[in-house]
Backbone:
């Protein structure tokens, strides 16, 4: 069917070539076989392949049924009862959560990177915890904290605020929980951006008499605009797709969002892939526009290039008399978003069933739920497989995406926009559809990938490619082209330049992306559940089993173990990450 | 020039890879698969027929011998209590057993995908009635006969598969919030405004809803509007939740006082741990009818280990029943289903749900949409 091959160049050498055209052909051949061309072509091809297989499956399933081409999926998906409410709820929820996460994540990152707040490594790991706690547990912990009927915060503050002051089952409650859960994504992006920022720019502003707030507003924020845009983009799409919060908090008062619908059309049999696809394609439209805008925002790239030939050392700002204020804010933040839900989980994990704290409840505490975990069959295998997959996925994605980011930000290739868009496509593809697409392809592939851990790796790399790309592109936009030029002038090859100059400078972004992917891949369920095979279990499958038919208290224990494991991993990654790239004092 | 060549080369690579990857139309279903399956492994069908024709000790002896010669078994299941069943099986027989567990939807999708690609990964499928019926209508399942099957409650002797346990939907309550004597006596009672804000419905329980709706219309002589009205009034008193595990935990915690469609085993297990929940009142009878949905097991026509597959079905109907009882589940045989023996039982109308699924999904969505705001 296909006649095009990668080695068919545009100029076909004539049988009797003339002198100049021969040398041109030779040049073309040399160029085609150069490592740079090969690497770039390979990365572009891999991204294209990973993104287009599930997209093709999704589009086909959306427009074709037994009778042929049809728009039935769209009319079913978008004519659903109360579509107006659905859209306004979804938008309010997504924009609200994105905004909250942006404010929290950016503030924390600024304090962590640019100031002399105490306990930085601990602070860093703690900022990750909302991301590490599985969504279902984080959400239920919030029900136990802020339900108007049984919420512990409401009970504690009842004498002051009256009964049922906090209500987690409202759109504002949903935004609070989702925003808190998403804030680590922003935090990581911003940590990378702030690390690559020359503080002398802010210092000049301060010296010229600008207040700290003016400096932040007029100097700092404009410099990290690409990171802000990337963060908003990821979070809006993420919260449009978020499932646990709308399902557990929204449904109680009938607040429906898009994902509740996608979930239901994929749940009943025969699965309405067409409707789910139509909804996903709606999201894709949002994402394509978002990527386009984010590229435009990063276009005046010189404006954001803070890593230039001029050396700098990111020196933390001394907070002076503001230090206690910052300290208090951080403590308050951690109390609210990290400590409170984590304590609820820890407390629940030692009970037989959840009940409000009382002398009797504390007396009944045991470690039975943890003991039960060790009895779960496959617990060891699952932990090992999840570790292998998490580390593997994070490494592969960040490596490929750093090259892809170079193509998008630096090269003049006309394909760069396409690569950027393609790398973002998997973000909108429902996990189940990805699972179906991959099993369809690899059940028919001559290479025996089906039934191995490798098919999960492909699924994970596909799912997390969009995040890796945003992290890498954002960092790449901060690096000035003059550094590469100097390397090349000094005789370095492209690959040498990439490896010795670009990769180390990208390190803050790559480490941040690595940590993010490592953490979230531990939780991936929707494609894993279809693609894993006996002996290749992953942790999320165990969590799902406990959720489906088990005990919430055991689930809480599993959550606590996951948090501990990942906090250790994140801290190690953070320490290692601090050793490469830009050093701070 | 350079960038043009680069663009074209990369485009060509992408195009070639893509064409290689997506040879056909992925979602168009492969009709006639049932014929090819039947011929794919006539050995298995022959074996099933041979064993099905035997009975008593002769059948058992022959089955064990043949199964241990096969020495392996692959199970695809959505049964979360399968671990203990399998370890009992492996203790009794010399058969290596591998288990794939997912939710019922992914078990079905996996089987559909594999069968259409002629990849025969499993010997038995053990999951919910709906998914088993789909497998049966696709022609994947083979007949299983035995005295053990004859002992299964009649709701569980389905065409192509056999129930191993029943999910039983009951009305449960928090005993701290609902005092003895004040327990609901009927589902209709929960439509009364005095229960406002105290009830919980689960958003995915379409099968429970369909069973009771049809019961109200067919047995209680309500009009369709009246039946729908009852559910809507209950929904107006309700908080909607998602997932039976979370719902059960929130019932124990007192987030609501009554659940209309909890699984009996969720409540029994929590009660055994000391949680203040129940579905049988201290005196009197539970809210009836209770809705039962069989979960069961079917033999794959494409099995590579047909004897081991049959032996495992035997095991689930014997040793497996004890395991389910330990997990507070309602077993499939008359003896193991004592918990519901004295109750009025309505089975989930599986055929209706398979044929008109969309209608019931929409109707139940209409009900849950009328929940309190």
Residues:
């Amino acid at each position: 069917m296909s006649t095009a091959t990668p080695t068919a160049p545009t100029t076909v050498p004539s049988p009797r070539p003339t002198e100049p055209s021969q040398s041109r052909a030779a040049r073309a051949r040399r160029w085609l076989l150069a490592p740079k061309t090969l690497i770039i072509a390979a990365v572009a091809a891999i991204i294209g392949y990973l993104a287009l297989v599930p997209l093709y499956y999704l589009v086909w399933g959306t427009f074709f049924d037994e009778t042929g081409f049809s728009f039935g999926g769209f009319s079913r998906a978008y004519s659903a009862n109360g579509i107006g409410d659905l859209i306004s709820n979804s938008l309010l929820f997504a924009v609200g959560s994105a905004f909250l996460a942006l404010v929290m994540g950016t503030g924390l990152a600024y304090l962590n990177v640019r100031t002399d707040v105490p306990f930085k490594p601990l602070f860093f790991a703690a900022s990750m915890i909302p991301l590490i706690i599985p969504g279902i547990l984080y959400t239920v912990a919030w029900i136990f904290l802020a339900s108007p009927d049984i919420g512990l915060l409401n009970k504690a503050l009842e004498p002051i605020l009256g009964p049922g002051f906090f209500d987690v089952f409202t759109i504002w409650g949903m935004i609070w929980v989702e925003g808190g859960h998403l804030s680590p994504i922003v935090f990581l992006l911003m940590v990378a951006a702030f690390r690559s920022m020359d503080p002398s720019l802010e210092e000049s502003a301060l010296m010229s008499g600008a207040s700290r707030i003016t400096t932040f507003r007029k100097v700092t924020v404009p410099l990290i605009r690409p990171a802000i845009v990337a963060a908003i983009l990821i979070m809006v799409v993420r919260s449009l797709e978020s499932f646990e919060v709308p399902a557990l908090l929204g449904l109680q008062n009938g607040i429906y969002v898009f994902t509740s619908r996608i979930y239901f059309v994929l749940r009943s049999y025969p699965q309405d892939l067409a409707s789910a696809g139509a909804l996903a394609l709606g999201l894709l439209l949002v994402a394509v526009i978002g990527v386009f805008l984010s590229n435009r925002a990063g276009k005046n790239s010189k404006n954001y290039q803070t890593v230039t030939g001029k050396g700098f050392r990111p020196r933390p700002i001394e907070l002076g008399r503001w230090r206690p204020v910052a300290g208090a804010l951080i403590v308050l933040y951690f109390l609210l978003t990290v400590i409170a839900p984590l304590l609820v989980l820890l407390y629940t994990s030692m009970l037989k069933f959840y009940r409000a704290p009382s002398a009797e409840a504390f007396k009944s505490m045991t470690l039975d739920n943890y003991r039960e975990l060790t009895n779960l069959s496959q617990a060891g295998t699952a932990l090992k497989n999840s570790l292998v997959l998490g580390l593997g996925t994070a490494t592969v994605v960040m490596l490929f995406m750093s090259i892809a980011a170079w193509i998008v930000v630096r090269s003049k290739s006309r394909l760069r926009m396409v690569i950027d868009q393609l790398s973002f496509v998997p973000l909108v593809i429902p996990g189940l559809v990805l699972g179906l697409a991959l099993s369809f392809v690899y059940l028919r592939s001559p290479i025996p990938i089906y039934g191995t851990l490798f098919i999960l790796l492909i699924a994970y790399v596909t799912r997390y490619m969009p995040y890796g790309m945003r992290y890498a592109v954002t960092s790449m936009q901060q690096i000035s082209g003059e550094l590469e030029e100097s390397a090349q002038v000094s005789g370095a090859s492209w690959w040498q330049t990439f490896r010795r100059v670009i990769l180390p400078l990208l390190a803050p972004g790559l480490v941040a992306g690595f940590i993010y992917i490592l953490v979230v891949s531990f939780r991936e369920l929707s494609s894993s559940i279809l693609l894993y095979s006996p002996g290749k279990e992953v942790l999320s499958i165990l969590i799902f089993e406990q959720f489906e038919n088990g005990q919430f208290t055991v689930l809480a224990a599993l959550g606590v173990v996951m948090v501990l494991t990942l906090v250790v991993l994140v801290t190690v990654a953070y320490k290692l990450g601090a050793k490469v790239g830009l050093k701070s004092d | 020039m350079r960038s043009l060549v680069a663009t074209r080369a990369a485009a060509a690579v992408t195009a070639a890879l893509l064409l290689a990857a997506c040879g056909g139309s992925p979602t168009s279903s492969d009709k006639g698969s049932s014929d090819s399956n039947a011929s794919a492994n006539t050995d298995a069908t022959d074996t099933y027929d041979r064993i099905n024709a035997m009975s008593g000790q002769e059948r058992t002896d022959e089955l064990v011998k043949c199964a241990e010669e096969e020495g392996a078994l692959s199970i695809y299941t959505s049964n979360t209590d399968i671990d203990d069943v399998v370890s009992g099986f492996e203790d009794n027989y010399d058969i290596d057993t591998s288990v794939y567990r997912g939710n019922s939807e992914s078990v079905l999708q996996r089987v559909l995908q594999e069968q259409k690609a002629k990849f025969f990964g499993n010997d038995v499928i053990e999951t919910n009635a709906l998914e088993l019926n789909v497998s049966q209508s696709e022609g994947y399942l083979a007949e299983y006969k035995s005295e053990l099957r004859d002992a299964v409650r009649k709701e569980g002797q389905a065409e192509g598969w056999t129930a191993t346990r029943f999910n039983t939907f009951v009305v449960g309550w928090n005993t701290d919030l609902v005092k003895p004597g004040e327990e609901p006596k009927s589902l209709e009672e929960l439509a009364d405004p005095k229960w406002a804000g105290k009830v919980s419905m689960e958003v995915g329980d379409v099968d429970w809803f369909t069973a009771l709706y049809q019961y109200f219309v067919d047995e209680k002589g309500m009009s369709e509007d009246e039946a729908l009205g009852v559910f809507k009034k209950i929904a107006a008193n309700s908080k909607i939740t998602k997932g039976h595990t979370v719902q059960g935990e929130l019932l124990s915690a007192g987030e609501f006082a009554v659940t209309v469609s909890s699984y009996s085993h969720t409540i029994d297990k929590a009660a055994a741990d000391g949680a203040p929940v129940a579905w049988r009142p201290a005196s009197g009878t539970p809210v009836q009818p209770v809705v039962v949905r069989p979960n069961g097991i079917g033999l794959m026509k494409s099995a590579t280990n047909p004897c081991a597959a049959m032996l495992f079905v035997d095991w689930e109907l014997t040793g497996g029943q004890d395991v389910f009882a330990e997990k507070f589940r309602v077993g499939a045989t008359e003896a193991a289903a004592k918990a519901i023996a004295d109750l009025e039982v309505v089975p989930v109308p599986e055929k209706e749900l398979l044929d008109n699924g969309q209608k019931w999904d929409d109707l139940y969505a209409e009900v849950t949409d009328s929940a309190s705001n």
About this structure: The longest helix of chain A spans residues 83-114. Chain A is about 70% helix and 0% strand. The first strand of chain A starts at residue 64 and ends at 65. Chain A touches chain B through 92 residues (CB under 8 Å).
